[in-house]
Amino acid sequence: MTVTPTEYPQRPIPERSMSQGEESGYDSPGSTTPCSPEVYFSSPHLKHLNEQLQTLEPEEILKWCMISLPNLYQTTAFGLTGLVTLDMLSRINAGGPRQIDLIFLDTLYHFDETLELVDKVRGRYPNTKLHIYKPDGCANARDFESIHGDNLWDTNDDLYDYLAKVEPAQRAYAELSVKAVLTGRRKSQGGKRGDLDIIEVDDAGLIKVNPLANWTFQQVRDPIAEGEDERSGRWKGTNKTECGIHNRRSKYAEYLLQEEQKKKEEAIADALRKVESQRAI
């Protein structure tokens, strides 16, 4: 089955670019607007925060996040680090007014054990709300394959990343008005994560906090071949070390942005031609 890129338009995400001299702070909405303020950091402020937070334990970082960051969520695939973060949050906020909701991207191809773990987590942490997002228009793997074909992760892994992870994440962030997310990434996981900061701000202005970035574990769930990082089995035989949602932008999403920019430029050029033709009359 042939899939054309134009079938998957990029969902718009409000972007904020930060210059070196721009100040950090909050953009407060008008008094009639019930939404939370936008949070942004200048480069010097972000560097300072990372220097300070590097010295703190994960629970202290989480406490800072809960005080400082509005519309904060935890993204998780229910891996080991994500579960540790969830448990820390439950102890920090036991009986407290602010609960940090979870966002789970159901790619429709998770192991049964993962889905069973999701149910166990719901039972153990009943006060934590779980938001599940799936590929657009798909309730199960059969739906996905009927639209996009079989084994898309083998035939076009960038497109698969976009459809199963990037687009659902963007949809979640837009619908939930997410300003910041807690991730389960750690430096010891290797690959691109080796120089991970505590706080990052992505191209769309989303604040990503890695509270356990400096933690190491002697053992992980899955067996690891000697010389490989603990996540290498996910893309064994490829040069990938990171999934689409944590890349600066997936190749497919970048392609869509370029196509959108090209259309805008063509529309502007067309409008200018019409203006010139009217002047000539």
Automatic annotation (TrEMBL):
CDD domains the UniProt entry points to: PAPS_reductase
GO cellular component terms given for this protein: cytoplasm
Superkingdom, taxonomy of origin: Eukaryota
Pathway membership: Sulfur metabolism; hydrogen sulfide biosynthesis; sulfite from sulfate
Domain spans labelled Phosphoadenosine phosphosulphate reductase: 72-222
Keywords: Oxidoreductase
Family the UniProt entry places it in: Belongs to the PAPS reductase family. CysH subfamily.
Protein name: Phosphoadenosine phosphosulphate reductase domain-containing protein
Source organism of the structure: Tuber borchii
Organism placement in taxonomy: Eukaryota, Fungi, Dikarya, Ascomycota, Pezizomycotina
